[in-house]
Amino acid sequence: FPAKSLRVRFLIRPPLCTEENEASYAIPLYAEFMPLLRARLLGEGYKEAGEDALAAKWLAEYNHILDTFAAYLAARKVKEG
Fold first, then answer.
1. Which of the 8 DSSP states describes residue 4?
2. CA dihedral over 38, 44, 45, 46, signed as positive or negative
């Protein structure tokens, strides 16, 4: 059967970060990923500062969020066959 309409979607990649544009470089990120990013950055920051208890807390939170997200993706995965 001939298609009645066709939708084409182009994904544009962001420019690579270079020394010239490093100061203004922003990483596009969906709002749903912000808690994941926040937990990881706080965990890494506290680890660098030598605050092991706080680093462990935030990295455990990061792992929990990441596991939850992986389970969500697995549940939505299209089954082959």
1. S
2. positive
